[in-house]
Design goal:
The chain is 35% helix and 19% strand.
Length: 523
């Protein structure tokens, strides 16, 4: 071994976003002290559903030493300031779930004051600046690259080096990214190989196990046996190592989240003419919802649906009609989604990262967040030669908590949606939900979510995210705290006015999102 007491030979099976994010991160973390081989088949295509992210993803690129101008143009990337929900309350209605810290007044979140006596019927525009910035199609950065009026500067984060869970509640960066997943994988391939990752393009014919049932190697068609100490399964929904070879049980979430399919299109468009709305849009449909992700040069879109309510052919037809003539000759990618998680994502000497670990439908862009979180947790709990089971237990607990927490959050979207015009949406109100979520909802009807009443373990969603869904969806009645009736509203009124003034100022000076990215690309 090159490092006393440590394992230093990793074999990653499967490429794509999960594989190359893992390879690049561990090379940045451990350098030449670790040996990494990534084996990917040239025949297995990437699913490519997830192109939008959480705002925490910026820490991944900073950890790799990459600035936005280094990687964003190569990946046709854009900014994402929020998720825009259309038609979930009723047709024609929309609201934003933005990346913006919730303001407080006299110990109560501004949303409480909005419920008591909001200036308008739009909580998102009254309580956040980002809603109006998005509506205007603006960049969160000024033409010179400075970020709105916040102190964040690339490479100078005062909390650099902390994991995502350690960041939560301390800061809220105002945007995430949207990009072509295949192009990011290609970019990270070059990044990783330049730093010493061995890239093997070959088909894995067999996963070999030793007498203990641990993985001893993978047999490939042209390169023979490839062996390591730790094996990372990035083989997608197949779960070639974790589920097939090691027979780890899979826990399905379909009882509470029935969407099991998607059909996706990559639609070339003149984005200069169309303009870029800097958000991911989720538009409710009769049997699911359609995502719209604007990139430089194209729009990524797809219909997430439940086959119990609509056929793949009908879903594709609905999606093409939604997009319009631009989709006429674009090939469709049909995807069967495995919704749930492996019982354990680290079993023996195998760790599953990405879709092989688990997946919860892409409603809040959690796919790449799951990958990033898993990589951070594995780096934090990296095993030594003694394979201390405590590190494995800590890792598995963290992964399970993140996925179970996100599951609760996504189920809330459907339970809280006021829409009930099709059987799909009517069933969403009567379908079984996790008992813990049902108990929380009863509390939220009296008091808006806070850190004491949301899912108790880190899962990437702060309390204000729950507030946005409850207030925006409109299907669950919520009330302001009774204490506000006895409180002086003038301070809250001044805060609402400060948001209006800040919005007016920013919408006058920020550049259009497309213009900002065109300038970044030197166009």
């Amino acid at each position: 071994m090159g490092v006393i007491g440590m394992l230093n030979k990793i074999v990653i099976v499967g490429g794509g976003t999960a594989g190359w994010m893992t390879a690049s991160y561990f090379k940045a973390a451990f350098g030449d002290r670790i040996d990494i081989t990534l084996v990917e088949s040239g025949h297995v295509g990437a699913v490519g559903v997830g192109e939008a992210t959480f705002s925490d993803i910026r820490h991944f690129f900073e950890f790799l030493g990459l600035k936005e101008k280094d990687w964003m143009p190569a990946c046709n990337a854009t900014y994402k300031l929020a998720v825009k929900f259309e038609n979930w309350r009723e047709k024609g209605h929309y609201f934003y779930h933005p990346f913006e810290q919730m303001r407080s007044v006299n110990g109560f979140p501004l949303t409480d004051w909005w419920l008591q006596n909001g200036p308008t019927d739009r909580f998102d525009k009254d309580c956040f600046v980002m809603a109006s910035v998005i509506d205007a199609g603006l960049s969160p950065r000024h033409a010179d690259g400075t970020l709105i009026d916040s102190p964040f500067v690339e490479g100078t984060d005062e909390m650099a080096g902390l994991t995502m869970s350690e960041h939560q509640g301390k800061t809220q960066f105002p945007y995430a990214y949207q990009f072509e997943a295949a192009l990011l994988a290609k970019y990270l391939t070059q990044y990783s190989v330049e730093r010493g990752v061995k890239h093997v393009v070959d088909h894995v014919e067999e996963v070999r196990l030793d007498e203990r049932g641990w993985i001893s190697g993978v047999a490939t068609t042209d390169h023979g046996d490839i062996t390591g100490d730790l094996y990372i399964d990035c083989t997608g929904f197949r779960g070639l190592l974790i589920n097939q070879a090691l027979e780890t049980p899979f826990i399905s979430y379909k009882d509470t989240l029935p969407n099991d399919s998607a059909v996706a299109l990559q639609v070339p468009m003149d984005m200069e003419r169309r303009g870029i709305l800097p958000c991911t849009t989720a538009t409710a449909q009769d049997a699911g919802w359609i995502w719209t992700i604007p990139l430089m040069g194209r729009v990524g879109t797809g219909y997430v649906y439940a086959k119990d309510y609509i056929s793949p052919e009908e879903a594709e037809r609905t999606l093409r009609e939604f997009v319009g003539p631009a989709a006429a000759d674009v090939p469709a990618n049909h995807i069967n989604m495995r919704i749930g998680r492996s019982e354990n994502s680290w079993v023996k000497n195998c760790v599953a990262i990405g879709l092989s670990s688990g997946f919860v439908e892409p409603l809040e862009s959690t796919g790449i967040f799951f990958i990033h979180h898993a990589i951070e947790q594995l780096a934090k709990n990296f095993p030594g030669e003694d394979w201390n089971p405590v590190q494995r237990e800590l890792y598995n607990d963290s992964i399970a908590h993140v996925m179970d927490g996100v599951r609760e959050f996504l189920v809330l979207h459907y339970v809280a949606a006021k829409r009930d015009d099709t059987q799909y949406w009517r069933d969403a109100k009567t379908r079984a939900i996790p008992e813990s979520l049902a108990a929380r909802i009863e509390k939220w009807k009296t008091q808006l979510p806070d850190s004491e009443t949301v899912f108790p373990y880190y899962h990437g969603l702060p309390p204000y995210s729950y507030m946005c869904i409850l207030l925006g969806m409109g299907g669950i009645e919520v009330k302001p705290s009774p204490a506000l009736a006895l409180s002086d509203p003038s301070v809250a009124e001044r805060e609402f006015e400060a948001i209006r003034e800040k919005t007016r100022r920013l919408t006058e000076v920020l550049p259009k999102a497309y213009d900002y990215f065109a300038d970044m690309r030197g166009a």
